[in-house]
Structures are given as structure tokens and as C-alpha cells.
Write a structure and sequence with these properties.
By secondary structure, the chain is α+β, with helices and mostly antiparallel strands. The protein is 23% helix and 43% strand. Strands 1, 2, 3, 4, 5, 6, 7 and 8 form an eight-stranded antiparallel beta sheet that branches.
Length: 137
């Protein structure tokens, strides 16, 4: 893994492997006053499509922050840390409610975290179009 910037179009295998390991992550969104809102989440990263995904409840604060940004999406970051290793994905987030998108996010979550979430009719997915990747291995 690189020492700082990682090419989002061609992340190395070490960086991708770190995103497949089971790690709790954080999602940072911005409140209306511009201050950061940081919460623990599970994140999956699909480098081929350039998408990171977070499943959550439609009534969550993070969903409200993303939706407040409008159609252009909210600027967000997700990060994970394991000792001296860390990785951050930055990009534009949008909330999706389509059943196929939510199901794909749940499938990926179950694969990474080795646990299938129970049914939740209020579940949505926050999809992040990754624009910048950072890390240190």
C-alpha cells in the first residue's frame, strides 16, 4: 500500500486486500453548519466500479446529511485503521432505495463482514463514487 495518495483507477493489490479484511470503519459527513459528523459503519469497496457502499436505516442522521446535499451528492470520506495501516476513500455520496442496489450492498456487506444483516424494510444504501484514495501500509 502506498504511503499517501493511491491511484483510484489502479489501486494496488495490498490496498484492495486491506479493504477486503474485516475492519470497522468510519463515515464522515458534514452537518448543515459544516462541522463533521463521524460515525462507525461497515463499508465495502468495489474498485472495479469505483463505489464504496454503506448500508443503513433511512432515518439515520448520515442519510439526512447526504440527502441535504441534493442531487449532486454529498462530499464524504470513509476510513479504516489497523495499527499503522490506514485507508481512506473520499467522494460523492448519494442515498439509494432501489431494492436491487440495497440487496447488492447487503450481499457485499455479508461477504466482507461474514454476517448477513437481518431483514430491514427501512434499509437503504449510501453509495459513494470514489474520487480519491489514500492510505499507508
Amino acid at each position: 500500500m502506498a504511503n499517501h495518495s493511491v491511484d483510484p483507477a489502479a489501486p494496488d493489490e495490498q490496498y484492495l486486500a486491506f479493504w477486503r479484511e474485516r475492519h470497522l470503519c468510519t463515515l464522515t459527513t458534514l452537518r448543515p453548519d459544516g462541522s463533521p459528523h463521524v460515525v462507525p459503519v461497515g463499508v465495502t469497496y468495489d474498485a472495479e466500479t469505483g463505489l464504496a457502499r454503506v448500508i443503513t436505516n433511512v432515518t439515520s442522521t448520515k442519510v439526512r446529511h447526504v440527502r441535504t446535499a441534493g442531487a449532486e451528492g454529498a462530499r464524504v470520506a470513509v476510513c479504516q485503521v489497523d495499527g499503522p495501516r490506514w485507508a481512506t476513500l473520499e467522494g460523492r455520496a448519494r442515498v439509494h432505495t432501489e431494492p436491487d442496489r440495497v440487496a447488492e450492498a447487503v450481499r457485499r456487506y455479508a461477504e466482507r463482514y461474514e454476517r448477513t444483516p437481518g431483514p430491514n424494510p427501512a434499509r437503504v444504501v449510501i453509495e459513494i463514487e470514489v474520487e480519491r484514495t489514500l492510505g499507508r501500509g
